[in-house]
Amino acid sequence: MATEATRLAPGQDLLAELERLFAETGAGAGCVLACVGSLTTAVIRFANHPESTSLAGHFEIVSLTGVLSPDGAHCHIAVSDGEGGTIGGHLMLGCRVYTTAEIVVGLLPGVRFTRPFDPRTGYPELAVETMKPEEE
């Protein structure tokens, strides 16, 4: 596994920058290995809700996990507020970095992730393809 690391600056969009970083690698499959930082806006889609919720304030990123593909990222985030209350769900566009977001991404050789539509779930779902060395 190869890795890429970056630091996001105040005001940057966490998901947009994560997808940009991954796209620039040209990799076919990846995952979020680590992320620590803070947000002023957290946009999260909660379980079994069709729409996202935008939260304003100061939040610590206590967890970010996800699968990265050329078709886009599927990430979940947990953030805590100033009293330690923690909330989490699906990471959406619009999460704005407060002071920093330090991110490490793993790049998986020999694998390509795609997200074809799955009629059973109604969502684009992960498909894993093993690549031949000449296809990488």
From TrEMBL:
One of its GO terms (molecular function) is DNA binding. PROSITE patterns: PPC. Residues 1-129 form the PPC domain. Transmembrane segments: none annotated. Keywords: DNA-binding. It holds the Pfam family PCC. The keyword DNA-binding applies. Gene3D superfamilies: Hypothetical protein, similar to alpha- acetolactate decarboxylase, domain 2. This is PPC domain-containing DNA-binding protein.
